[in-house]
Write a structure and sequence with these properties.
Helices cover 4% and strands 46% of the residues. The chain is mainly beta and 239 residues long.
């Protein structure tokens, strides 16, 4: 399947990532935080899902099994609402829609969940990306970030799609890691100007603030990062 990933500007096809199964050895009824500082919880839609401001309210967003780019629809799970029998009833999740960072509740039966052990931190001022795995730093690398006119949006996001370009020699390089953030200035772009972490055919740009908001890596580093950042991986972008 071909894709125009607007906001970065290249043609790509989907490449699915996986999350490990989640099991709960013990639990309690009520609202329980999902994951830990070193482990995130991802949810993938079974067939369709609706998001609610609170359990039982009217839905404000609807999601199919796959997103507009044909990639499976993923959410990052923030907390679980469990019934008296300890079974999950609802998940509070971060959604891959505007405004950046928006959350909602989805019914537990609408998704499957899994653990994610990777975490990405991007420091815009230092123009540096750091990968953590199970809480330990794996590597840190220089990156290109958004220009002053088209800045990279700060906040807490997650990987919501993984893409392989039709050619490794274009502006994406060999792969792109889509995240649940959107440009705050390119509002007229197709799909709202989604943000991604990707390779580049302009290696000179690394270490500079020159992109349309996306985060560029040297292609060999991007390949390494792509292997260990499944959908659901938390991505923190800070000034």
């Amino acid at each position: 399947m071909l894709l125009l990933l607007a906001g970065c500007g290249a043609t790509a096809r989907q490449a699915a990532g996986t999350v490990s199964p989640i099991d709960v050895p013990g639990c309690r009824a009520g609202v329980v935080r999902a994951g830990s500082p070193n482990v995130a919880v991802a949810a993938v839609v079974r067939s369709s899902a609706r998001a609610y401001r609170r359990p039982g309210a009217r839905p404000f967003a609807h999601f199919g099994r796959r997103n507009v780019n044909g990639f499976p629809t993923f959410f990052r799970v923030l907390s679980t609402v469990r019934g008296p029998d300890c079974a999950p009833r609802w998940f509070r999740v971060q959604l891959p829609i505007k405004p950046n960072g928006v959350t909602g509740y989805i019914r537990a039966r609408a998704v499957e969940t899994g653990r994610v052990h990777s975490r990405v931190v991007v420091d815009i001022s230092a123009k540096r990306l750091t990968l953590f795995r199970r809480g330990r730093r794996v590597f840190s690398t220089r990156v290109a970030v958004g220009s002053p006119a088209t800045p990279t949006p700060t906040g807490r996001y997650y990987v919501n799609q993984r893409l392989i370009p039709s050619t490794p020699y274009g502006p994406f390089g060999p792969a792109a890691i889509g995240i649940s953030a959107y440009s705050t200035v390119l509002t007229g772009w197709t799909q709202g100007g989604p943000i991604a972490i990707h390779g580049t055919n302009e290696p000179w740009s690394i270490g500079h603030a020159v992109s349309n908001g996306c985060i560029r890596l040297l292609n060999p580093v991007l390949r390494r990062l792509f292997k260990v950042t499944p959908a659901g991986t938390p991505v923190v972008i800070r000034d």
